C-alpha cells in the first residue's frame, strides 16, 4: 500500500489532480453520449414539445456522439494531454454561451419547455467547464510544483 502525505497548503499530488480531471472528462463523455442519443432518437418526437427542428437535432446528436468519443479518448490517455483537455474546457464554456444565445435569440422556434431544456443544458455544460478548468489547474500546479 502506498500512502501520500501532504501538509496543508502544499499542492496535491499529480495523481489527485489527474484523477479529478479524468473523472470529469469521463462523466462529460458519458453524458454527452446520452445527450447525443436523445437528440438523434428523439429528433421527431421531441420536436413539437421542445420546438427544436430535426434539421437541428440530428446533426447536433451526431456531433455529440463524436464529441463523446473524443472526450473518452482524452480521458483514457495515461497522462492527460493539456492542450486537448484545455480545448474541451474552453469548448464547453463556449457551448454553454451558444446554448443560451439559441435559447433567447429567436433563431429556433422553441417552446417554453424547449427554452428551459436549453438553459438547463447550458448550466450543466458550464458546470463541466468550471470543474474541468479546476482539474486542469490542479493537475498543472501539481505537475509543475
UniProtKB/TrEMBL annotation:
Keywords: Membrane, Transmembrane, Transmembrane helix. The chain crosses the membrane at residues 56-77, 84-104, 110-131. This is Uncharacterized protein.
